[in-house]
Amino acid sequence: MNELLTLGTATVYEASKRDCVLPHRLRPVWAGAAVVGPALPVSTAAGDNLPLHRAVEEAMPGEVLVVDGQDAPHGYWGEVLTVAAQRRGVAGLVIDGGVRDIERIGELRFPVFSSSVAVPGTVKSDPGTVGERITLGRVAVRRGDIVVADADGVIVLDPQWIDSVLPAARARQATEADHLERIRRGELTMDIYGLRALGKGR
Ligand SMILES: O=C([O-])CC(=O)C(=O)O
Ligand SMILES: [Mg+2]
After folding, report:
1. Binding residue per annotation — 191?
2. Cβ(75) – ligand 1 distance below 6 Å
3. Ligand 2 centroid to 139 CA: how many Å?
4. What domains can be seen in the chain, in order of their start residue?
5. How far is the CA of 100 from the centre of ligand 2 (A)?
6. ipTM here
7. Low-confidence spans in the chain with pLDDT less than 50
8. SS in 3 state form for the chain?
């Protein structure tokens, strides 16, 4: 699975030929954050983080929490939950919602991707769902789907796709490496991609 991260979200996404990218508002909260692993989907009522506490207990080591927090500007997650999650072997967090304590999260090197950074906290009252299918943007996320998240964004793959997507992604990377070499030798992308045939434009 680590090879998916080495190839990177953009290459794997293109190779997958699927609509598997989560909304672009989900951004890493510290430079260099990246994670790959099976998803544990979670949904919360807006401004309620009880399901996240439940998820930290429920998670299997290596799982990535993928949370529908309705993009609400609340600090659903911070240093305390990060330390708790690391103690349980949780691999990372992707949340459509806010997080806080981000300097500490960066120092702890826990990969977090969120739609905002937010100071106000949450209530703990609605149990929400843990382990049930959620939808973020146009993408359904089920437990065990493979999450790949890096500086470019977050994609979610059905595990059954991996056997075909991996070779396609490797091939794409090899082609790009060849193109880069030709560009360094002085060729133009207009020629490499055959773009002259599309006309000169205005
Ligand atoms: O307290 C909370 O609910 C969120 C938070 O800041 C932490 O986990 O440190
Ligand atoms: Mg805190």
Report:
1. no
2. yes
3. 30
4. 2-158 (3.50.30.40), 163-198 (no CATH)
5. 7
6. 0.97
7. none
8. CHHHHHHCHHHHHHHHCCCCECCCCCEECCCCCCEEEEEEEEECCCCECHHHHHHHHHCCCCCEEEEEEEEEEEECCCHHHHHHHHHHCCCEEEEEEEECCHHHHHHCCCCEEEEEECCCCCECCCCCEECCCEEECCEEECCCCEEEEECCEEEEECHHHHHHHHHHHHHHHHHHHHHHHHHHCCCCHHHHCCCHHHCCCC
Q: Model confidence over 118-137: pLDDT tens digits?
A: 999 999 999 999 999 999 99
139-171 residues labelled b (16+ CB within 10 A) or e (exposed) = bebbbebbbbbbebbbbbbeeebbeebbebbee
Alpha-carbon distance of 8 to 5, in angstroms, equals: 5
Q: Is the dihedral of CA 90, 92, 94, 95 positive or negative?
A: positive
Ligand 1 pocket test: which of 93, 100, 110, 119 has the largest number of ligand atoms within 8 Å of its C-beta?
100
CA 100 to ligand 1: nearest atom: 6
